[in-house]
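Sequence in, structure out. Go.
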Amino acid sequence: MDVAVEGRQPLATGALEFPLLQLIVEARNEHGMRQQDWSRYRRYCATKTQRVRSALHLTHAAEQGKAGKATKGQRRSKRRMNMTPEMQSAANKGRGHQFVRREIALDEVRDTRPLELLLFEAEHSWASAEEIWSQHTDENRSVHRRHSLSRARRAVQYAEELRELVEALPAVTLPGRAQTLAYVGLVRGALHFIQGRSEETLRVAAVTRQLLTNIAESSPTSRDEALASSFLDTLDAQIRFAAYSMNETDDPYAAAERTATPAVCEEVLPGFAETIQQLRSSHQAAPPKPLELHWRSQTIPVHTVELYDVVTRVRAEEAVLARFVQAPTFSAPSERTKSQRTRLTHAERNAKRRGGTGRARVGRANNAEWDPFDRVLSALADAEATARALVDENSHALAKTHSTRYEASGVHLRRAHEWLTYRLLSVRIARNVRLMHGVQLRAHKREARAQSLQQAHSARVRPSRPAAPSQKRPQPGSRAKRTRAEPKAFRRRPGRSGTRRLASERRVLRSKRALRAAEGQAERRRLRLVPGLAKLLDGIDSSLLAIGGLVMVEGEPDVSNLLEAKRFFYCAALMEYLAHAFVQYGLLGEALILLQRGDLYIRQAEQSLELADGAEDEDTSFPPQLLGGSDALAQRAQGLEQARTDVYSAITRHHGPAASMRASKSGQTLYFHAQRHVSFDAALVEHALLEAQAQLARGPADMAAGEAMDAEEMEPPVGDHAPVDMPMSNDDAPFDPANALAEEEERAQEAQRPRGWLASWFGRRA
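Output:
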């Protein structure tokens, strides 16, 4: 294909944006070049050029007005089969098969489609050359080299035609001109590399690398910078191979800098100096805005196209999520009006009837409307997978070829991957916390509604008889009865056995029975909430454990301790919910063990929070906020104490056998979550019950006095009576959250050890 430039004037149009590097990167990444599938990318380029050529009416059709086509026998004769292509072309000229070369007229260029046509023609030839060269062996090296060089020269020809067309169009912007010039250098470098000309390869690669570096530095956005930097890896490989072939093994990049003199740059790429000057002036006029990730005092730059795209999507979804979180989610029934109610369609009502929630179900089925948390989590999951793939690719490349560029990019990629993982886990925790609050709020509203209905039912009185209507003569045909002027002569008298008293007692019993039934229903409703809450809290625990394992979190001891305190806080909440559920099943000893473990988690959280006093700020992505004098741990400790009080009251009124948790699926789920934190040993359960019964037998006053005495014994002496250089026993050792569980297990094993008769006599363990 030729370009008609001479004697023509360009069409007066606006600025033409020609993002050459973006077109190449997107096409290569989407059509097989990630897997080095040259054949697939070549087929895509052929299809692309055919579509563009048809749209521009530049198809290579036969000349009209010539003689008719040859017959089938003439086309397939032996004489024609033995003819060369040149002979066949000369023979077909008189039969309507004369080839007419189409040319791109400069005065007919209105958009970037002619430029894209030449670009993908060059890409098709380059992919063919690389495919043929990748299949060569020692036996067919010469043949494959000849064919590959032919296609590479064709790619260089198309690239030169593209550069001439871009230079002839003044409407093309400066980035498009610079990228086109750099593309010519890339194609020439590939040609010299296949030819085996090391010196020419080093010259072209060094000049092209310098031009791409300037394009990256003068890019208006981080994405454009990443696009230009993505081609530097190929050039670095060519520079190292060429320097090795030329015995320049000390520092190949220094050799490339020595080679890329101003004269060589202008010789290899005409117009190099002018392009560099224009790029630098544009960079000073409009400095770029780099895309960076921030975590505390760390700044993570983004220099990869794929990572730039996914991070941009994540930030857009997080902005939508921030507006969603600030808006009220749940409104009281009294605040809702009839105008605020959304009318469901027929399909939505059917979906709701089948078990969904109507609008949300239909929206998800059509991928039209998702929850903002789900959208952010989807974007973060894709971003994390992309970052992980980039880290793996960089590691493989670094293992094959040692390069400082790979090392620097690997550090940034790993930090970006950890940042995305941290954000993904943080949003999961925030989603679970919001779901918990929503479940609890709806349960509170149901309980309030049930209590109001129960109160209305208990306060309901028998309606009195309506007043007698006025004495009117009934109309003919009316069935209205005449009211009695006088009461009945006979009235029922109360029985001698106290009918009124029995009726009042029955009413009291019915009210008590209804109250107990309502309490049982409320307990069952609360019990149904526990498996879902336990699953959400278990997810929070897993996410916090994963966050604590990140390298950037482990490098910050204060942040790590603060996250550990939050984890213990949620574990204590889980123990509280599970204890309430075990009380409903009648497993009171197990409930006491769960509450003991909850107290242990509270002490561990307090200890971790003391170690995190150096943390200046706290992540506000998810609650609780433990710094700044927060009383969240105190409230959680009060909740555990209230749960223990409920267990004590249940011990006093419980006399029947405990229900089996293995009989229901929800009970099995609760038992599974509980066993992940505690071990229900029979001796430990019995010991906990006996201790609780002993405390109940002492009474509240004795229990308070005993607690006060224990507190006084734990207080160290003050003043002159303080001991000096006293050895520290095991009981006086400071609390260690790392060894708390081990110490508790040792005490349990000590309690299970058998006692001999002599040791029992003296009150000691055998």
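Check: Residues 632 and 661 are 32 Å apart (CA to CA). The chain has four domains: 2-60+102-291, 295-327+367-454, 515-711, 733-766.
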